[in-house]
């Protein structure tokens, strides 16, 4: 592990290792003295694993246990029957009829971001920190889509304890996997960071529970309340979802899924938007092509609002976003544990073995992608990028693929399309250094210069 830490140097060393060992589809990686991971970076083997029954290859409790105290046993972490039941119950929350109204909400939130940037330009501020501003924007989206909570978090440094707890716990989760002493749970919990973590977990759970209980009481008073709402938020879906026996989720289960939705949704989307803006800011040609496409789709309307019907026509912008997510995959690694003995690529793998499926490594694997470090959106102008159905899987794949991937990608199209239409952007960070635990971010925030586009 010393050669492959979760830093820019470690990632580059890993890329060189893949280039030097094209025949090696399965690698053993030691972390410390006692823990080993079977690392997979080839689409053939990743396909086999992700298509196995979730009961055979569940999520690794050790790795995902970092955030379990915060998220509970929600869809991201749960295994076996609980995961299967929850997945079925929540799937309807990402149906076409539910997703369509969200597009206008995306536009409203992005409009706040654009106005804030215009205000900065009027004050002579032409440079913004990308992740800092985009993360607050995506949190605003998630709060409104989750529970219709309008926090105003984009416009001011909010004193809202709930908002601050949600934001802070993302950083505290990162510290638990990057600062060595914190890997030992008692040390983390006895530290100031551990105290803040427990306090934030309590704040988020208590506030979410209040929202759930208030909504449930309203539903008891008016059983048709949700059915008659034109735009349903995530909590509406959770309150009315039933399993195969006709049972709904208890308050605790709804709190778990709400917290998971916020945690998993806003930071990953912020990563994808931020890296795409950085790359388009570094490639003026592709940025201009995206802007031209957006304006062609808007077709001279009085409003810059990107509508549901427009999304399928933003084909080149889609290619640019996918290429960005290939180079800077928001969730670099996913973890599984063998629940029974198995064989793979000629190796016997005993029950209890841990797998690290490196999606970021797969996406930069020189044995899968030609010139993998080059930003080339045109490689997605084909039916099978990378030549394999599992060569590009930014939302994972198989049984446990991301349930909200359509929700997220629609948000990416609206946010990036609106920003590129409004501003010409120039990347000022020339060689960003990545850190990868949990979400792929830069060591120092990306900087871009804004100019109103003509």
From TrEMBL:
<protein>
    <submittedName>
        <fullName>Cytochrome P450 4F4</fullName>
    </submittedName>
</protein>
<comment type="similarity">
    <text>Belongs to the cytochrome P450 family.</text>
</comment>
<dbReference type="InterPro" id="IPR017972">
    <property type="entry name" value="Cyt_P450_CS"/>
</dbReference>
<dbReference type="InterPro" id="IPR036396">
    <property type="entry name" value="Cyt_P450_sf"/>
</dbReference>
<feature type="binding site" description="axial binding residue">
    <location>
        <position position="402"/>
    </location>
    <ligand>
        <name>heme</name>
    </ligand>
</feature>
<dbReference type="InterPro" id="IPR002401">
    <property type="entry name" value="Cyt_P450_E_grp-I"/>
</dbReference>
<dbReference type="InterPro" id="IPR001128">
    <property type="entry name" value="Cyt_P450"/>
</dbReference>
<dbReference type="GO" id="GO:0005506">
    <property type="term" value="F:iron ion binding"/>
</dbReference>
<dbReference type="GO" id="GO:0016705">
    <property type="term" value="F:oxidoreductase activity, acting on paired donors, with incorporation or reduction of molecular oxygen"/>
</dbReference>
<keyword id="KW-0560">Oxidoreductase</keyword>
<dbReference type="GO" id="GO:0004497">
    <property type="term" value="F:monooxygenase activity"/>
</dbReference>
<dbReference type="Pfam" id="PF00067">
    <property type="entry name" value="p450"/>
</dbReference>
<dbReference type="GO" id="GO:0020037">
    <property type="term" value="F:heme binding"/>
</dbReference>
<keyword id="KW-0503">Monooxygenase</keyword>
<keyword id="KW-0479">Metal-binding</keyword>
<keyword id="KW-0408">Iron</keyword>
<dbReference type="InterPro" id="IPR050196">
    <property type="entry name" value="Cytochrome_P450_Monoox"/>
</dbReference>
<keyword id="KW-0349">Heme</keyword>
